[in-house]
Structure formats: C-alpha cells, structure tokens
Design goal:
The chain is built from ten helices and eight strands. It has 367 residues and is α/β, with parallel strands linked by helices. Helix 9 links the parallel strand 7 and strand 8.
Amino acid sequence: MEIKPAYDPNGPADPSAGIFGLPHDYSESKVVFLPIPWEATTSYGGGTVHGPAAILNASSQLDLFDRDVVNPYLAGLHCLPLDTAIEAMNAEAKALAEPIKAALGEVKGNPELESKLAQVNAASAKLNQGVYQQVKRILSDSKIPGVIGGDHSVPLGAFQAAAETHGSFGILHFDAHSDTRNAYMGFTDSHASIMRNASNRIPGISKLVQVGIRDFCEEEYEFTRSQGKRFEVFYDQQIMEAKMRGESFASITSRIIAGLPEKVWVSFDIDGLDPRFCPHTGTPVPGGLDYAEAIFILKSLARSGRKIIGFDVVEVAPPLLPDGSPLEPVQASDEWDANVGMRLIYKLAALSLASNGLAKWASPHEA
C-alpha cells in the first residue's frame, strides 16, 4: 500500500520529525534504521559513538527527490530511537578497554587486565545479541534493516539475523581496511575483526566482496587469500591502476558485482571513501573511492537483479572537542561527515527498496 505523504516533500523538513524530516512510524515503514552508538574497541581516533545522532541531526537537510528511484520515501523510512542503555554500556566498556589498548593487548599474567578484557568481550557479545534481536524483529516484520554505527563491530548480529532469515547471502564490503584481524589486541569482537568474525561464525555468508581496501597487515592479506573463492578483494591500488591503464569504471564495477549471489548485504565503512568525504572518521587512509564511484557501484548492484537485503553504514564521526564531546555545528563544514553519511543511507534505502520491488526505478531517460 502506497503511503500518502502528510508533508510537503518539496518544502523544508521538520527537524522535530523523524529521520529526513519524515513522520513515518515503525508500522508503516518498509525501511527501518537501527542506530548503534558503540565504539568500545576503537584503536585510533574516536567519535563514531556520536555518529548515529549526528546523522539523524543532519538528515533534515536532505532533499527527498531521487533521480534513480521514484519517491523512495513513500515506502516509509523510520529510525528507531537511540538506546541510552547502549550508550552507557559503551562508556563503561570503553573505559575498561583503555588500559588494555595502552598495553597493546598484552594482558597475559596481569589479572586486572585479564579481568577487564573479559568484561569488554562480554559487553561486545551482549551488544551483538541485542543487535541480532532487533534486526531479527525488523526482518520478521518484512522490513529492510539499515544499521547505523558506531564502529564497524556493530553489524555482526545483523549478519546473523540475515542468515537466519534469508539463508545464504553475500556481503559487499566497502572499507579502507580489511577488518580480518584475529581478536585484535585481545578484543574478540573488535571493529578490526568484523569480517573475519562474519566469515568464521556465519556459514550462511557465501561470499564476501571487499572494495577499496588499502590498509591491512600481512596476517589479513594471507587470511583473505586462504579463503579461496569465498573472499574476493578489490584493493584500492588495483582499482586505481586499472583506471590509469584505461579500464572504464563501469568495467571495474561489473567485475566487482559479478561474484555476488542473488541476496546481498551492503556493509559500508565510511572510510572506504576518499578522506575528503569523512575527515573525522576514526582511521582515515589516503586514497579511496569518490562518492560518485561508490554510488555507481551500489546503483549497478541494485540494477543487476540482485536484492539488497539490508545494509550498515559505520565509522561516521563528527568533529570532537578536546574533551571528546561532539562539536555543536556552527557552520556546514562542522557536520560534513554526517552530511555525507546521511545521504549515503538515504541512497542505500532507495536502492534497497527498488531492488526488492518496493519502489519503482525512474524511467531510463531520468536515470
């Protein structure tokens, strides 16, 4: 049933309404965003815990019209409220993790640090279970989940819920990092281990295609190579060199998509983009995709006949004050990271809807 807007999609958004200024509640929405303010195991810069709130605050600046998908907002877009219990658990776990990070994860023989590590890992497991339960509910209600991080450890429970709901599926992973370290610094559910954990713990993931990877250790390089056809990595260096040799980006995109199965989850670490689009993300790396290139890949995926069954956008971080609190935006550049992040999740929502037949593609001359 098509939802008739009780608002003017051409007018200014109401900042007091829901995400993107939309009034949709859970029951009438086909896409449901789940914000997860979590960054307990971040190992370099911080601030991603504030990413979901920053994205929500910036979202009212979006124009709802989309040239690829006809009025995707009519399908209903809803964001669940930020869970203050997760924020509190994150603060506690992050404090416990700090001395472990200072010791570079060398905790063996130190009972105090061993205890703190066990507590952090237990908190991460509890978070995974909570995300799993919420995403399982969203999927059970025939809605498309969009997880908003937080650091990149947060979607593991979502992957598990997707596997139980959809069976076999693939992950299209955008990132500067491989995220296939083994229990980085002893943290079993580190943001640096998310794709290794996904591969090891969730047999339903039949394929992982990684795009934009440009910062990784030898262990990660060897791990992905050892996985055979299950892992396919498109390193940033390879993509850029192919472009320099004259291969069209359309051809590169076709190679990226070719190995993916019918059902795909998109896991998008914002640092997969060129850092000019995400200057305050926790671990920026030179190089990366242009925003338009990332959208082209996502649009090509959705138009390929595959279904986007869910997505996550993680590692968005607003600029921070010296005490670690987010800077209140004074000018547009202060919320640039969130601006890019909120546009990305809207586009992902639109393309997910179209790929599932829940919204119409624009006619060819408008695409």
